[in-house]
Amino acid sequence: MLVKQVDTSSKLTFRQKAFLGKLVDIYGESHEPVHYSTVAGKLGLSNSSAYDMLRVLEQKSMVGSEYTTPKEVAGPGRASVLFYPTSRAMEFLVRIAGEPSEQEEWENVKAGILESLRKVKTNYKELLKELSVKSPSARTPLAQCAKIVTVLLLSLKEAKHKITDNRSVSAIVKAPVSKLRMSILAGLILGLSLADHKVSHLLGNYRKYTEKYESSLKKLNKEGLVRLHRFTQDVWELLESESGE
Description:
Elements: H1 14-30, E1 34-35, H2 36-43, H3 47-59, E2 63-68, E3 80-85, H4 87-97, H5 102-120, H6 125-134, H7 141-158, H8 167-174, H9 179-194, H10 197-200, H11 206-219, H12 222-243
């Protein structure tokens, strides 16, 4: 028996829609779940009002929550609840704002990067600068990951590493996909790039980007992870083909 899914997003009040939009803005600054007191402070509300609204939106599948224990507390500590907008919330806000959908953003980002790589071919410095500036602006986790992994791979090229000699990187790129492998890949490329002193000064903000990469990677579902992996393979193959080695 098929159960018809009810679209609760259409039942959001004007106040709930405005609150959700503000939450997305706050979340977009760090791409990390936020404490309800942070939301309350940003919106000029009491902690209890912000908390109650977040729970209402959670019931409508617009907000997700998770519990965390402060790292500085030794042993068992008091857990705090953090909130984040769900992909459903993102799609809903996109729909009412008339912006491109998550799928449209992904297709645009993917096509734009691959086309740029094909045109640039060997001189990647300007493309690297452009992507490193724009990478935080990606709205969805998949597009965010795609931009950052491209920046990291281009930084590896800029560090004058021979693509065909990076067997460890190649092995991860070509291995079956998993979130662990995609996480290791980002760390490995960053480490190799930082080893070149001429390039290390260009990597000032890239550590922040890798944190965003990890955060976005955790939010990808299986389909998104497969798309990211295939995209990474496409970028890697283009860089290999243009290396001339």
